[in-house]
């Protein structure tokens, strides 16, 4: 799997379909109303499209590991 935010961001569009991702980082934004989640690791930041229930208890500064696909 891709393991850094930079690797996800640098992935060319034509190679980005359903690639596995596992990133550990810090929550920089968690909007519980619309379900937005942004996670920053040591390399970059990425948007995560989470299940609304999964981010209910998250806040800025929380350390998380997210897994999914591009």
Any overview of this molecule?
The protein has a four-stranded antiparallel sheet. The chain has one helix at 5-10, and strands at residues 20-31, 36-40, 45-48, 63-69. The relative contact order is 0.32. With 70 residues, it is mainly beta. The longest helix is centred in the first third of the chain and has 6 residues, at 5-10. Strand 2 (36-40) and strand 3 (45-48) form a beta hairpin.
What features would you highlight for this structure?
4 strands, single chain, mainly beta, four-stranded antiparallel sheet
**What proportion strand?**
35-45%
Task: Report the oligomer.
Answer: single chain
Number of strands: 4
Structural class: mainly beta
Profile the largest sheet.
Answer: 4 strands, antiparallel
Low-pLDDT residue intervals, each spanning 5 or more residues: none
Q: How far is the first residue's CA from the last residue's CA? A: 10 Å
How are strands sequenced across the largest beta sheet?
3-2-1-4
Order of helices and strands: HEEEE
Number of helices: 1
Helix content: under 10%
How large, in whole angstroms, is the Cα Rg?
12 Å
Overall pLDDT level = 94
| Overall 3D form | globular
Helix-strand layout with pairing:
Blueprint: H1 5-10, E1 20-31, E2 36-40, E3 45-48, E4 63-69
Antiparallel strand pairs: 1-2, 1-4, 2-3
Summarize the structure.
The protein is mostly beta strands. It contains 1 helix and 4 strands, in the order H-E-E-E-E.
